[in-house]
Amino acid sequence: MKTPVIAIFDVGKTNKKLFLFNEQYKIVFERSARFTETVDEDGDPCENLESLRLSVFDSLHEVFRKAEFEVRAINFAAYGASLVYVDEDGRPLAPLYNYLKPYPEALQRKFYEDYGGAETVAFTTASPVLGSLNSGMQLYRTKYEHPELFDQIHYALHLPQYLSFLVSGRMYSDKTSIGCHTHLWDFTKNDYHEWVYREGIIDKLAPLARTDELYPASFPGNGYGVGVGLHDSSAALIPYLVSFYEPFVLISTGTWCISLNPFNHSPLTKAELEADCLCYMHYQGTPVKASRLFAGYEHEQQVKRIAEHFGQPSSRYRNMAYDRGLVDRLRKGGDPEPIGGKVSAFAQRKLSDYASFEEAYHRLIMDLVALQQVSTQLVIKGSRVKRIFVDGGFSKNALYMNLLADAFPEMEVFAASMAQATAIGAALAIHQSWNSKPIPNDLIELRFYARPDEKEKKENK
């Protein structure tokens, strides 16, 4: 008897993974790949698109050779802000430009002058001004810097939709990619922004498809359907949306720590945009208010600094216990202000002030959580949220979780663990189309962190 499965490609900047999930959403097969980056015509690093394309086909050939599985559907989740320019046959016409590629200042200035100013565009598109990370601006740049290339483009597909095209042969856009800090979508009108029409960009965007629909495959195989793919941050939220109905905020932690609130429907304010808030798009088409913090990156850099100073390995922090007494003692010292609301106070601290790796590391996490509290509060404000879920790297960090529970005394704070939230989200988006069983109610494992005064009350009873 063959096991019915769904195949999910989860394509990150570093790791490219293929998972097979059974109907209970358990991983029954996994394959991982990493590719060496290549460079674009300016010498800037970019994704190796040909390696990625070949890897998709190689992985599928391997899966279809496995007689024990019946593949019922395939879907994709990939990082955003990356466009593949294709001709009518779907052949790439240019490199997959990196979203960290510097954006020409003069062209950016012209764009905002033509369309009402940076503040107005940021407000209507629910995204801060981020240069190439606003993927619509990559298309705008191509039109003015490479008009001959622009004329040849049949469609500009976001990366998840390009991957979907490779298997389905159909070209579509999807709202989770179009609605994520692209500058393409006007959240006040729920339509493409005026500039998309005026600049002729609309002709380069494939028709919008529903995220929960399946399309026939052109790739050989037996009667499976293909999803249109999702932006990875939107996909990672789906397991929580199908598992919990009470309002919550999800802090998804990694290099970026992104606080996502699908229950906050108030429009973004100017102050929120300046504080790096934006809207992601819910897989069913509604806005999800979010705030971003580069905290995982800062943690990595500062742990290296601490380790070098104390002559210890960087990994020392991993099994460190939370020391409440040490935290209370450190709180008595004066606190420098965070730098511009984006970098914690720790960057300004002298390591010679601390007696040990433990002491310095406790101080680092205290400073990062102080910044996280401000960032997360931005998306909680004005909503009825009473729960915070934390997934990713920091959810396994006892110091971070205890300090976060302390920072939000009015909330229930949980560390959430589930294997491969992004990939499972992409599978759940099309659950009805491939899976005859109900969604399991144990997808996410939760660990509750009581705030310290609650613990003391219980212990004194």
TrEMBL record:
It holds the Pfam family FGGY_N. Residues 6-196 form the Carbohydrate kinase FGGY N-terminal domain. It comes from the Bacteria. GO terms for cellular component: cytosol. Keywords: Kinase, Transferase. InterPro entries: ATPase_NBD (IPR043129), FGGY_C_2 (IPR049382), FGGY_N (IPR018484). Residues 246-433 form the Carbohydrate kinase FGGY C-terminal domain. GO terms for biological process: glycerol metabolic process. Signal peptide: none annotated. One of its GO terms (molecular function) is glycerol kinase activity. Belongs to the FGGY kinase family. This is Sugar (Pentulose or hexulose) kinase.
